[in-house]
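Bug #77: duplicate submission created two jobs. Keeping one. Sequence:
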Amino acid sequence: MSAASASNWHFIWLKLQWLTWILGLVLTASCTVGANYSRPPVEAPAKYKEEAEPKSPQSIDDVISAQWWEIFGDSNLNGLEQQVTISNQNIAQAEARFRQARALVQSARAAYYPTITVGIGVTGMQQSPTSQSRNPKTPSAFPEYTLPIDVSWELDVWGRIRRSVESSEASAQASAADLEAARLSARAEVAQDYFLIQSLDAQIRLLDATVIAFQKSLELTNNRYNAGVASRGDVLQAETQLKTTQAQAIDLEVLRAQTEHAVAVLLGKAPADFSLTVRPAVAAPPAIPGGVPEELLPRRPDVASAERTMAAANAQIGVAQSAYYPTVSINTSGGFESESIGNWFSVLGRFWSAGIATTQTLFDGGLRQSQVESARAVYEQDAAAYRQTVLTGYQEVEDNLAAQRILANEAQVQDDAVNAAEQSLTVTMNQYQAGIVSYLNVVVAQTLALNNEKTAVDIRGRRLNACVLLIKALGGGWKGF
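Kept job's structure:
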């Protein structure tokens, strides 16, 4: 190796040592601006106000599993729920958003590493005849071949990149919670619609059976009218009651059809390609414990999403604050260049440059300050949304614990009312046939019996709906992150 070449390499080595020393100094002095995140405290009540007992002997996990719908013991419902995750388009959208959020995390992490670019170029050049550097023995026009390799690296001295990654990771976790919330919502809607169809079918069967009974009453009244015992008014009353009941049964078919269409859409199917036959309900609605209020927060995906969104906003404050500090970057470039393709990669054709640069904004008209204030305002909005989501969660649990308890008591009283109305109808029909009372008394008794039976069916449907909503309010078996 020649003395000139050795001197050149020694100079390069000194430059690299100098850059390494500066890089080590910068990284040692680096820090992360902005406040580290801590979840704001939320006061949880000692117990639920509407819980029947101070503490349920069963824990939530013992009752509500990931396949919580199986608690109702309905194979038709189980089959529908299995199709929700596969075909529901809202879940598909949430899943795609989650994949996008994960990709954004990787995009943010990429800023930790240097950017390396390589290019190849061929440039035709011609010196002017008056150029002092021109050699008369060489042609005035010649090509130049270049192969540059550039490396640029922004040093994360103040933690801007770290805060960006922190924000992206929190956003991805929020998106994962949103995906679980979409699954829970879709599954709960399927169960609610299924039990609504079950209730509607029970009411339709009740009205159909009542129509048959009212037809017999109309025939009896007609016979009594033909025998001169009953009046024409009695016949018209019986006919009116029959037609009114038939109209009620037909009207329920509208809601039944619309609810079936809603289930089809939840399953990702066209309503024309879906039909649902619901079997009559047999078992009583299960009792769902509320558990301990402080256990609710990690179980609800919407609360988890709100909390992670708040964490992402907190990290963005640090990103905005990092703009007050200088940006430090390392830029290097090297490669080969030659006027002939044969000597393109020769030792003499190499070139390089390296350096470290720092830039600082001196005046921006208040831009950075407004960005920091905006980031703080977003965080405060998200913190308020988080607290509101927590309060809403407690309210939903309390609402449906109350509905579960009160409707169970109402069902018992309503069953007694149904029995009393049926006995009253039997007595009134016997009195009418004996000529003791008018047919108006029969109409009143029949209407009262029908309304009480419809109310009993409706209460049972509301109890099932309250069970589903309580399971949803408790997180549907989700255990959190």
